[in-house]
Write a sequence for this structure.
């Protein structure tokens, strides 16, 4: 029976690329994001292996409902990819907007925790895999970066979850890319990493032999 992957932030960029890569590798993919139109288009491109589930990652009931529908549709859950994330339009502690900080923290930290909370009981049944989108900004200090600090949380949490999940045969991986050419940036970055590069890293972790817990993949553009 095909394995099933639940993806947040699935409507574009890294999430969409991972959905395509996973489906190509024989996985069912449940696609979760706010943009119903984009999800429906992506699911149409993938075909019967895809399930579009529109919702808001900052609302725990919507995340839990989507995970439940994933299990009902595909018969279980083998992996969850907490990928949804936001940056800031106005950086800086003094210059920045506290409301914008709150929105970012709600997505980058609380949304990730809601995803893990909903998915873990299902993953425990399958000795499954939790994958989190971290960042190069969560591995090194960047002058004044509040966004980077949210990714330090992701990296710390990923390591903590790896220790917890190993007790029941599960695995947790943090994927830490440098600059990726996605809509996250207001200008195109064609010479940087592509979403497909990050998707390749996710699939490497998911497809590793069960004895091999790939706890972190750090990838950077070669230039």
């Amino acid at each position: 029976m095909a394995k099933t992957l639940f993806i947040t932030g699935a409507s574009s960029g890294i999430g969409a690329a991972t959905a395509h890569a996973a489906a190509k590798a024989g996985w069912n993919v449940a696609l979760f994001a706010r943009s119903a139109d984009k999800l429906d288009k992506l699911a149409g491109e993938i075909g019967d292996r895809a399930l579009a589930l529109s919702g808001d990652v900052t609302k725990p009931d919507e995340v839990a409902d989507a995970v439940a529908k994933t299990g009902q549709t595909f018969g279980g859950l083998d992996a969850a990819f907490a990928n949804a994330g936001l940056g800031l339009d106005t950086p800086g502690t003094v210059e920045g907007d506290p409301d914008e900080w709150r929105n970012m923290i709600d997505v980058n930290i609380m949304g990730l925790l809601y995803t893990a909370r909903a998915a873990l009981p299902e993953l425990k049944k399958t000795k499954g895999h939790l994958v989190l989108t971290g960042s190069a900004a969560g591995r090194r200090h960047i002058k004044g970066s509040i966004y980077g600090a949210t990714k330090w949380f992701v990296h710390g949490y990923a390591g903590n979850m790896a220790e917890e999940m190993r007790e029941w045969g599960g695995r947790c991986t943090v994927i830490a890319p440098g600059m990726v050419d996605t809509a996250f940036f207001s200008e195109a970055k064609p010479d940087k990493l592509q979403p497909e590069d990050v998707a390749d890293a996710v699939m490497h972790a998911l497809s590793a032999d069960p004895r091999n817990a790939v706890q972190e993949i750090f990838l950077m553009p070669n230039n």
Observations:
- The chain has a mean pLDDT of 96.
- The longest helix spans residues 98-126.
- The first strand starts at residue 4 and ends at 8.
